[in-house]
Each structure stands twice: as C-alpha cells, then as structure tokens.
Amino acid sequence: MEQRSQQHNEDSSDALETHNSRMPASLDEKPSGYENKCTCPPPPEACEIVQKIFHDKTGTHFNEACSLKYSHGKEKHTQWKCNSHISSKTSDKDNGSVCIPPRRQKMYTKPIETLNKMSPLDLRTAFIESAAVETFFSWHEYKVEKKKEKEEQAQLVVNTSEDDSDAEQKKLNGGEIPEDFLRQMFYTLGDYRDLCLGKDIDSDIKTVKTNINKVFTNSSKSASSKTITPNDWWETYGKDIWEGMLCSLSYDTKTQKKVQEEHDKLMGATKTIYKYNTVTFNGGFNENSTKLTNFVKRPPYFRWFEEWADEFCRKRTHKLEKIKVDCRGLNGQNNCDDDGFDCTQMVPNKHEIFKDFICQSCATSCKSYKQWISAKKKEFNKQQNIYDQEIQNIESNYDKIYDDKFLRQLSNDYISVDVFLKKLKDGPCCKNNIKYSRINFNNPDETFKHAEYCAPCPVFGVKHSRNGWSSNSQKTCDGIIYKDTRDIKNIKHSTEKLNMLVSHNSENRFPSNLNICEKVGIFEGIRNDEWTCVDLCKSDICVLEKFNNDIHDKQNILFRSLFKRWLENFLEDYNKINNKISHCMKNGGGDICINGCENKCECVDKWIKLKKKEWEKVRDRYFNQYKGGDTDLKFFVRSFLETLIPQTDVDNVIGKVKTLSDLEKSTGCTSSDTSENGQIKYDDVVECLFYKLQEKIDT
C-alpha cells in the first residue's frame, strides 16, 4: 500500500494541485509538531472506490445502469447504430457512416454526467465508478450470451458435457479472463478514453462532455498549478480506471458480493498478465498481440470496425452451424428448406395437408439468419464506403492523441479498403471459420449470401447416398425427360402466369400501376415478380421470368414455397401499412385519412385491389391440389397461418382480437350470401384483413 501511494504521488506531482503547492514561503521551516499537517493523503485506491459502489445500500449505480440498459425486462440497444445523424466529420448520408456498437450506445456514464465537484481527482472517481459498473454489467451479459450459445450448441452435438455450462466463470475464479471478454474490455476502455479526450462521436453525451470540459477549464484557470490537458489526465489515471474494471470482476453478478478468493487471484494476475502497461490481446492488426495502451489510442472508427468484424465472424459461424443441424439433422438424415418443407416429399399428400411441414426449426433459423445477414450487409457497406474519408482524416483531422505508429501503418500499408478488409478477414475470430461459412470481406456477395442449407427444395427432388444429399438433375414424366428450367418454361400446356408484388428496400422503384406509392413514405420500393407455374409429374413447379441473383433465392421453386412466401410478404406489408396509416391518422387528430394522408390512402387502396387479385389466384391454385378432402377453404387458410407463420406475425395483424377464428367472425368478415343450409358464410382470414384495411382508409 505504501509503495502504491508513493508511486501515485510521484505520478501526480506535476499534474495535480495539492496543499503543498500552495505553501507560503514563510512556512518553509515547519513548526515543531506540524511537519505532516499540510501533506495531502493520496487518493483512494481504485478497488476502494469500487468497493463503495457495491456497499452502497441504495444501489444507485446499479439502478441507473439497469434503466439505461434494460426496459420492461428486455435488453435495449441490441443493434449497431449506423446513420448520418452520428456526430462524425466523416458521416455521409449517401455513402456511409461510422457504426456505433450496442455496447457503446448503452455505456454507463451517469457518475460523470452528474459530477458536481470539478477537480481532476473527482473526475478520476467518476470514471472509475462508470467503468467498473459497466464492466460488471458487461460480464453478466457476456455470461448470459455464452449460456445461450451453449444451450444451442448442446442441441447440435451429441453427449455435450454439462460441466462446461459455466466455464467462463470458472476461468475467472481461477484468475483468468476469457480472451473474447478481455477484448471487450479493451474496446470499452478505448471508448472511455474517447470521452475523456472529447473525441467520442456519439451526439447523445453533451452533459458528459460539458462536465469533463469544466474540469480542465478550472484547472487552466488556477494560477498555482500546472495546466492539465485531457491527454495528461488520461496518462496519469488511465491505469486506475483499468484497475477499477478488473476489481469489479471480483463481485458475484447475482449477489453483488465480493468473492475474496477470486479477487486475490485476479489481482495477483493483474500484477503480471493484466498489468495496464503490458496487458495484450490477440488481434488489433499486430502479428501476435496488441498492447492495451496502444489499442485505446486508435481512432474509434478503426476500433469499432474491427469489433464489428470480430462479432460478425463469431456469430455468423455459430448461426450457420445451428442451421446445418436444424435443416439437415444431427447426423445429416434430413433435407429441409427454409420454408419448412421436407425436400424428400415432393408430391402433395391430399389427405394430410400439413404433413410436408416437418421442418419448422429449419424455417425459423433460416428466416432469422436471412434478416440478420441482410442487416449485417448494410452495416458493412456503410463502414466500408466511408473508409477512404477516414484514411484522409488521419493526416488532416486527427489530433496528436492517437497512436502514431498505428496511423503511419494505416497510411502506408492499408491505404485501400481492400487491404484493410483482408486484414480483418485474417483476424483471430474470422480465420477459424468452417468450409461452408468461409468469410472473405473482399467478396461480399459470397460472405453475405443466404445460408447454403436454407436453399429451397430442388424442383426435381433430392437423393441420398453415402456422400450425402444431392439434387436430382432430371425427371421423367409421360415419357419426356425434363432436365432444367428451360424445359419447364417451354411447356405449352397447363401453364399459368402469376404476378406478385413484393416490397423491397434495395431500389426505389415502383411498377407503373403503383406509381402513386412513390414518395408517400409507406414502401421504399415495390417490384413485380412474374412467375410461370405448371403441373409436372404431380408436382406444381414455378419458374421466375426475370431472375436477379442479388434479390431472389432461386429461379425455380415449388408452388407450395411460393404460396407460403406470398403469405409471409403479405403479413409484413400489412403490418407496415397499418403502422404508417395509423400514425398518419393520429397526427391528423382523428380516425379519417386526412392531414396529408390522402396519397398514402390512395396508394393503399390501389395496393389492396392488386393484392386481392393475386390472393385469389395463389390461394385457389394451392388449395385445388387438396380438393376431395374434408378441408374447407376458410379452415385451410386459417390453419396454414396458425401452423406455419411465426406467431408474432399473426399477433401483429389481428390486433386486439384473440384468435384468427374470432377475426373471421368479426364485423365485416362475413359474405353477403349464405351457404346452402342457411348458415352464415365467412370469408377467409386474408380476405378479412383486406376488408379491415379497406375500411380503415375509407372511413
């Protein structure tokens, strides 16, 4: 303790104002008995400050952090924030922007925000408190995420050991911080340094910046002390903030009580492995390892882009491993597609309409992955597109507060984004990916494509051999051999053309019959997919006339997949329209389509008319395959939605009505005519939803 205090006084002697520096010359010779009266005691150790947080019975810090990070029991800020509103010199609304990680968006800074004593030592305490609480919560979230990953992994591997369920905590108990969490601590400390130096690019921290600036402004006004710059302050106290982060890991995440044995081992390791000036992590563009003191001095864009790549590679590999088992089975015994169909059952079972839908876990995992990989591609493009501007900023805009060696390395060796991306690909998290999930950021079409095991069932079916599954290359029907899509398209008899309007965000284009929807704020774009469908060897096959590899999964699919996708797209668009129209009417102060909503209502009216015609054709074509059974059309549609569409999608469209059956019986969902026995005839659920939406815009 004495050695630590002596060292601290030496570090602070040039930077901090003490009572000794204000000693009048007349008191150079101290009176007897007063030799130590004017000597200021050293500031409290970082671990002492952390201990006070956990001993505070009011739980103020933890309550504040909870409200910041959670809402109604759910985690807030779970997505990367990439938009042109970020306060960055290089954000570009047309080309790209810096992307802020979820971890940074909810980073705890309340002690700095509420700071009322504006001295360097008070600021030190506030930073230690903030970083310690942040690390404590991050460790809890890290363990929860690892537990979830292991639960999913247990379903993928036979005879998984339960002893590995809390391996991360066991490591920490032994004084070892898991490598990927240590990496996260590096990222976090770098963000706190940005705050201190006023280089944080998040615009939501004005109060924090104001308080930090006041501390250094007060210091510069003091005539009796040396002016302290933010960089000076960090060089003095950065190690204390790091030590506070380490100390917080000694507290149990459930009881918030200190585990002394764990503390002793961790603090013992702090003197060697985790010492501030020597601790390293595997990454950071160095051949072997990167020192913490160097890494935190890198501009946030480059730190965050690397963090994004590490997270992407780890999560993508895990998700694809789960998809492989969900769609092919634990031992490769299944062959399912992303619509939940069994690819070995190509002919409809007229007696069991839903028997082919045995792969809902595959459908669920694939849909989740498709949404996730689409979001990741957008995030990647935004960060990639701004790289050149960031490189230019190295020489023109960045102050002398960043790591000169790293900046020179960027300017000399990573002048183009392609070279930078190759280095990201070679990072520790990205280079260990498996064959079917290899990552190459220089080939984004391959890296961000839909999962291989989520492909639609081949139209000619599949076969299994000792080498695994493969598609049937041809099919013989009525003495004719069909080999590919061209053969199917050339069939002249029994074909039907189906046009399907699909909303999409890739291009701001609309078909001529929906020009009214352009620039009204409901859809970013709508495309018209034209399909040719034909009955071939007891299978209903559809071929897309104009195939775009960047948009479509496959050019030829079974009609059952097309029918399911029509319903999924309809539900998504219905929710989107309903939300936009409802919001518009609320702004108008009533329940009628006014106050600038006229164009929106005209767009929706036209959309309803066109989609109604589509629905009649796709519904009747699919249902006709099962005629002769005891299933009526209304029951068929309702059962299909209840069985196959994710429950959240159904819940969103039915609103306050409890079930789809109740929706069918609600006002306006009955036909004007009646059945032969005089009972009321109900429309199917989709027709009912059309009616509800039409009623809303016509009222």
What keywords describe this structure?
699 residues; alpha+beta; 5 helical Cullin repeat like; Methane Monooxygenase Hydroxylase, Chain G, domain 1; 3 domains; 4-stranded antiparallel beta sheet; 25 helices; disordered N terminus
Explain this structure to me?
This protein has 699 residues and is of the alpha+beta class. The chain has 3 domains: 46-85 and 93-154 and 165-278, 5 helical Cullin repeat like, CATH 1.20.1310.20; 301-454, Up-down Bundle (Methane Monooxygenase Hydroxylase, Chain G, domain 1), CATH 1.20.58; 474-584 and 596-698, Methane Monooxygenase Hydroxylase, Chain G, domain 1 (Up-down Bundle). It contains 25 helices and 16 strands. The strands form 7 sheets. The protein has a 4-stranded antiparallel sheet with strand order 11-12-13-14. Strands 1-2 form a two-stranded antiparallel ribbon. Strand 1 (70-71) and strand 2 (74-75) form a beta hairpin. It is elongated. The model is unreliable at 1-27 and 90-94 (pLDDT under 50).
